[in-house]
Design brief:
By secondary structure, the chain is mostly helical. The protein folds into 2 domains: 1-207, no CATH class; 229-482, no CATH class. Helices cover 84% and strands 0% of the residues. The protein is built from 21 helices and no strands. Helix 1 crosses helix 21 (469-481) and helix 13 (278-305) runs parallel beside helix 19. The chain is globular. The relative contact order is 0.11.
Length: 482
């Protein structure tokens, strides 16, 4: 195994550990919070956090990825990036604080105003983490990045549980976010060794302006695509419906966070080292798609098949309205597990202009889907979102692979058989769960029998249809453990 491959594997392993810790923590905290808080409390945060996360895009301004991708960024560039982020974070904090009332009126949720004002301080806290995080990523210090994520996430969860137990309501979720961002920024600076001087050079920014402007535009538009559902559902269906949707969406994201996002953050750092070798980039990207599919496709199929008993056991009976939404969102998670790595690939190839164009197309399609879907309730909204993802997958993957002299046939060779096996496994697991339910099994018993059965079914299908897949997963596991 080459040094670069070993570094990438170690980076993916550490990122996956951090993601697994976040998911495990979320699985532990969510059942607790759903019993201490109301669905409307989750709905309030689902309104407030998208506003904050949108503003955080301007904290970074695309400079973070530019620092990672740059061949040899100067000391002045590091300082310029830091002060640019600091200025934007301060300005955006003030803007959100002063306009929180207007945003609450737009969502028709008066309770959101003080929540937004408090969350505004996450912007100034987060802007301190951009530069040291980029420095650690350039140094391939994935271990520190992962440990800091774990520590800050666990600390935030502890604060949330304590506050919720004290009757803080939606404010428990606010304190969780503020604690996490404050601790993360502090630990990044304690670990990173980047030195900042009182220097600011506009020419350093101007040199990468085409790259960061297209990237920032894509991020801003993609944000609207990803969060338009919250706005539209809140306006049309109300905060309680939004709470059920937000919970289902959060569960759907967990497998993506575990592997896909971990790989995506490693991709930019590692692929940038040989970004001019297009055949090698293509081979690496297709392997990434294949590995993601082998893990997330069967996971999402299982989630779709067992959504109702899983929601009942993990979150409690009062959250059961989220089950049919989760069953529809799960296939979307399978698509998004692959698309989450696309941004790093476009950035590696220096084609943020194409990324911007397809992000515009995605946003228009998704917003139209949500507007139509909400006329038919939450199930209609999730179904419309699924259809939109199916329509968008082909042109985006064709364009990305075309930059590497590849095509959709390459994508099918990498992921097609896995997708078919996952669908077949999901159908069989659903039939088994229905049979157990008809026989009088409890929801917990259904999960106990169905989850191992699903794993066994998928392994058998891989052995019968794709014999290289199982040894490939075992080899990846050995590398990650090593």
């Amino acid at each position: 195994m080459s040094d670069l491959t070993q570094t990438a594997t170690k980076g993916t392993a550490w990122n996956s550990v951090a993601s697994l810790a976040r998911i495990a923590s979320a699985l532990l905290i969510l059942p607790i919070l759903t019993r201490l808080l109301d669905p409307a409390d989750f709905g309030i945060l689902a309104v407030g956090m998208p506003v904050i996360m949108f503003m955080m895009l301007f904290n970074d301004m695309g400079i973070g990825p530019a620092l990672v991708r740059a061949d040899n960024p100067s000391k002045t560039f590091w300082s310029t990036a830091f002060f640019a982020n600091l200025f934007m974070g301060s300005a955006l904090t003030l803007i959100v604080f002063l306009t929180a009332g207007y945003a609450a009126d737009a969502f028709k949720l008066p309770r959101a105003e003080p929540i937004l004002q408090a969350l505004a301080f996450a912007l100034i806290l987060n802007c301190f983490s951009v530069v040291p995080a980029a420095w650690l990523l350039r140094k391939f210090d994935f271990r520190s990045l992962a440990l800091i994520e774990i520590i800050s996430s666990v600390a935030g969860i502890g604060v949330a549980i304590y506050a919720a137990h004290q009757g803080a309501g939606a404010w428990a979720l606010v304190w969780q976010q503020l604690t996490m961002f404050a601790l993360k920024s502090t630990l990044f600076w304690l670990r990173a060794r980047v030195r900042i001087s009182f220097a600011f050079d506009w020419h350093e920014i101007k040199a990468i302006l085409p790259f960061i402007s297209n990237l920032l535009g894509a991020q801003v538009i993609n944000f609207f695509a990803r969060n338009s559902d919250n706005f539209i559902i809140a306006r049309v269906l109300g905060e309680t419906a939004l709470g059920f949707y937000a919970i289902a969406y959060r569960i759907m994201l967990m497998p993506i966070q575990f592997l896909s996002w971990g790989i995506a953050s490693v991709l930019l750092a590692t692929l940038s080292t040989f970004k001019s070798d297009r055949p090698r980039v293509k081979q690496a990207c297709l392997r990434v798609f294949r590995i993601i599919a082998l893990i997330t496709f069967p996971t999402m199929a299982g989630i779709a098949a067992l959504a109702e008993p899983a929601i009942s056991v993990v979150l409690g009976p009062k959250m059961l309205p989220a089950a049919p939404i989760l069953a529809i969102l799960a296939p979307i998670g399978a698509f998004q597990s692959l698309s989450s790595a696309q941004g790093s690939m476009f950035m590696t190839l220096g084609r943020t202009d194409i990324l911007l164009r397809y992000t515009v197309l995605t946003t228009i399609t998704v917003v139209i889907a949500f507007i139509i879907g909400t006329q038919y309730g939450l199930v209609g909204t999730a179904t419309a979102y699924l259809i939109a993802n199916l329509l968008l997958a082909v042109p985006i993957f064709r364009s990305l692979l075309g930059l590497m002299d590849g095509g959709l046939r390459d994508m099918w060779d990498a992921t097609g058989i896995t997708a078919i096996n996952a669908i077949l496994m999901g159908v069989l697991v659903y039939l088994l769960a229905e049979r157990l339910k008809f026989a009088g099994a409890t929801d917990l018993e259904i999960l106990i029998y169905s989850i191992p059965a699903g794993g066994l079914i998928f392994i058998i299908l891989l052995i019968l249809t794709d014999r290289r897949a199982f040894p490939e997963l075992l080899d990846l596991g050995r590398k990650l453990i090593a």
